[in-house]
Amino acid sequence: MGTVAHFILYVADQARSEAFYATALQLAPRLSVPGMTEFALPGGGVLGLMPERGIKALLRSALPDPAHAAGTPRCELYLVVPDPQASHQRALSMGARELSPLMVRSWGHAAAYSLDPDGHVLAFAAPSR
User: Fold this and answer.
1) Residue 68: helix, strand or coil by DSSP?
2) Residues 45-87: pLDDT tens digits?
């Protein structure tokens, strides 16, 4: 089996975040159990959603409680998709807060940025023409 990258976001409310990402990504979760939701991303990656209390239990006080950083951007999920405007609009309809509308960026992508319900930066992009 080849390498598959898993990106796990710590979330305050697993059910809320699962509904948010299912709508924004137009994907059904491949796994949805108490403590973890997973989405198989196009291209082979996996997006995981873990409740903050779950990672806190795993860390056993080795690191600060991730809930203390709520609202502070802790990562960026940058997704190259066929229609970034539609994906961005779905995210906004589910409660994301727009940071920047879709526009051509200096690195050759058209990208739109928002914050998901937990304050993670979410970008939808496509190569610009």
Assistant:
1) helix
2) 999 999 988 777 777 666 666 667 766 677 899 999 999 999 9
Long-range contacts of 109-117, Cβ-Cβ distance < 8 Å, separation of 24 or more: 109/80, 110/84, 111/78, 111/84, 112/84, 112/85, 112/87, 112/88, 114/88, 115/73, 116/9, 116/17, 116/20, 116/21, 116/77, 116/91, 117/11, 117/12, 117/13, 117/16, 117/17, 117/20
Domain boundaries, the chain: 6-63+71-127
Q: Is the dihedral of CA 106, 73, 124, 49 positive or negative?
A: positive
The token pair at 35 is 């403590």
Give the CATH fold of the 6-63+71-127 domain: 2,3-Dihydroxybiphenyl 1,2-Dioxygenase; domain 1 (3.10.180)
Total length of the chain? 129
pTM: 0.86
- Does the structure show a pLDDT above 70 at 94? yes
The letter for the amino acid at 92 is L
